[in-house]
Design brief:
Blueprint: H1 20-29, H2 31-43, E1 54-58, H3 64-72, E2 77-82, H4 85-93, E3 103-107, H5 113-116, E4 123-129, H6 138-148, E5 149-159, E6 166-168, H7 172-184, H8 188-194, H9 196-206, E7 210-222, H10 227-242, H11 249-259, E8 274-285, H12 289-297
Parallel strand pairs: 1-2, 1-4, 2-3, 4-5
Antiparallel strand pairs: 5-8, 6-8, 7-8
Helix pairs in contact: 1-10, 2-3, 7-11, 10-11
Bound molecules: S-adenosylmethionine.
S-adenosylmethionine (SAM) is lined by residues 19, 23, 59-62, 64-65, 82-84, 87, 109-111, 129-131, 134-135.
Length: 298
């Protein structure tokens, strides 16, 4: 796969997960906001005496965030880890040569402790961005993130809460209906991923992290919406409406009217549309047991 010539203008959709196209559109629509979010998060992490940070971007997908992390500070060294070879091939292909000394992508199944062990305590900061929802064993993944982190380092999970991710200028009844139908259609184990930020504190604490903090980031847009935003919203709502397993024909028609790009009152077509996209990041510190027990002894 890594040796194949992939088309330059698009991901090899046939080999990537179904959600890959939507993620790519999201990155394009919010590239500047996402970069600023990462800059702010890195400012919250202690800087090692040596200067730059060793950073892991686990479940890195196409490497979009790994590249940003390397670009933000020329002293950072970043490793993107993922289990999907097709995604890793795209990540390597799309990473500029100027970053190659500080950015690499490696295959690693984070749920296989013996695979992840070669990176044990190798990083000052360990990110997992928008991936919890697609990985079932949240506790297992968080344990591995902590294992990869150096004592005193920081683990950061960023996720949306699907009950409160998009606030737009559509009728409130439409939003209530969408969330009710989505929630009712979820199996029990999927509920944690759907609304991860509110479960995060307990999960991160049981993985051994301390000093948990939450940061939220809002990306605001007012109409007329630009094409990258419209492309992402269209894909996002088409997918969410297609995936509904609940609801009467009338309820589905009501959702389609306001939220589907082909709907007669599709909110994003209005030049006066408003949208806020809300993301949560949860940060936890890996205790430095040796240093902290020394402090107590004093
Ligand atoms: C929703 S994507 C997010 C990708 C990327 N973080 C982003 O935001 O663009 C989830 C990623 O998790 C990866 N993944 C799933 N299970 C994994 C595992 N056990 N070990 C490593 N990566 C895994 C998938 O291959 C996929 O790239």
């Amino acid at each position: 796969m890594a040796d194949e010539q992939l088309p330059n203008d698009r991901l090899p959709d046939d080999r990537l997960p179904d959600y890959a196209h939507c993620l790519q559109l999201q990155h394009a629509a919010f590239a500047t906001d996402l970069r600023e979010m990462l800059e702010d998060l890195l400012r919250a992490c202690p800087e090692p005496a040596s200067g730059g940070r060793e950073i892991a971007d686990i479940a890195c997908g196409d490497g979009f965030f790994s590249r940003l992390l390397a670009e933000i500070d020329p002293r950072n060294r970043v490793v993107g880890l993922d289990v999907d070879e097709a995604y890793l091939a795209v990540a390597r292909r799309d990473s500029p040569a100027r970053l190659s000394a500080r950015l690499s992508f490696q295959n690693c199944d984070l749920l296989e402790p013996e695979q992840a062990e070669r990176f044990a305590e190798a990083f000052d900061v360990v990110f997992c961005i928008d991936s919890l929802e697609s990985i079932e064993d949240h506790a297992g993944l968080l344990r591995q993130m902590v294992r990869l982190c150096r004592p005193g380092g920081v683990v950061i999970v960023t996720e949306t809460d699907n009950l409160h991710d998009l606030i737009g200028s559509w009728p409130p009844e439409t939003e209530n209906l969408l969330h009710r139908l989505e929630w009712e259609g979820l199996a029990d184990q999927e509920k944690e991923g759907y609304a991860f930020p509110r479960y995060a504190s307990a999960l991160l604490r049981s993985a051994g992290l301390a000093d948990l903090t939450v940061r939220s980031y809002t990306f605001d847009r007012s109409g007329p919406f630009d094409e990258p935003l419209k492309a992402w919203l269209g894909e996002q709502f088409r997918e969410r409406l297609d995936n509904l397993s609940r609801g009467t024909a009338a309820e589905r028609a009501e959702l389609r009217r306001h939220l589907h790009p082909a709907g007669e009152d599709y909110f994003a077509n209005s030049p006066h549309a408003l949208l806020t996209y809300l993301r949560f990041c949860i940060l936890g510190r890996k205790p430095d047991v040796a240093a902290e027990s020394h402090e107590v002894a004093w």
